[in-house]
Amino acid sequence: MSRGIRASLLFLLVMTGGAAAQSNSQPRATGMEDVAKIKEAMLGNWESIAAEIRPSKNPDGSLKPFYLKRAFKYLPSDRFELEVVNSADPYGAVPLARIKIGGHMLWQGAHPIAPGAQKVDFVADETYEVTPLVQGFTDILNKVASVGYAPWVLNAPQSIFGKTFVPFALKEGTNFMEYDLVYLRGDLLFWGARNIDGRGFDTEQNRPTNLQIPLVRK
């Protein structure tokens, strides 16, 4: 296994989720009617245009690029399904793991990044599943995430929903949640860009203040 791929595998175990400079302007807030229209227009399937780069941190605090592709489905009653494929390279040619999340979106009001943008919390309160896609990552999981799980096998998914999962800092009985945003512009769906210093979207204070490259309607 090359040094680059090995480093990416180790980095994958400490990833999760953002911001850039916040705008000083304050666009008008959207009303409930506008939010209902946004929700209706979002219904359906969305996918990454290309592999996305996101900054995150190594265990020693240094920054490292992180690559992924997303497939997102927005469903009635604010339900969502998300599939993320993490890669070792910027072109997505060396996939490391597939993560599937299902849950609900909690709409928290207007976000000042752009007119019509909304603060949204993504809560994985239905499903959370991990599939290792290379043997190196499979071996790592068998070392750091063996308690409470069957042996990890290449290309075989396991549910981590509601369980302790040390690689992603998940604790038993808790649901993964991110403080994010959405901004819909035609057939482009933007979420928040990751914080440039590698911070995740784990608190309201860390909610993103910039836009990630968009998903396109599938």
Q: Would you spell out the secondary-structure blueprint of this structure?
A:
Layout: H1 3-12, H2 32-42, E1 44-48, E2 52-57, E3 63-75, E4 79-87, E5 95-110, E6 118-132, H3 135-144, E7 158-159, E8 177-185, E9 188-191, E10 215-217
Antiparallel strand pairs: 1-3, 1-10, 2-3, 3-4, 4-5, 5-6, 6-7, 6-8, 8-9, 9-10
Question: What's the short story on this structure?
Answer:
The chain has helices spanning 3-12, 32-42, 135-144; strands at 44-48, 52-57, 63-75, 79-87, 95-110, 118-132, 158-159, 177-185, 188-191, 215-217.
Keywords summarizing the entry:
10 strands, 218 residues, mainly beta, single chain, 8-stranded antiparallel barrel, globular
Shape field: globular
Record field, number of beta strands: 10
Based on secondary structure, the structural category is: mainly beta
* Distance separating the two termini: 35 Å
How confident overall, as mean pLDDT?
87
Helix content: 10-25%
Radius of gyration: 17 Å
> Helices and strands, in N-to-C order?
HHEEEEEEHEEEE
Helix segment count?
Answer: 3
Read across the widest sheet, the strand sequence of neighbours is 1-3-4-5-6-8-9-10
Approximate strand percentage = 35-45%
Biggest beta-sheet profile:
8 strands, antiparallel, barrel
Poorly predicted residue ranges: 14-30
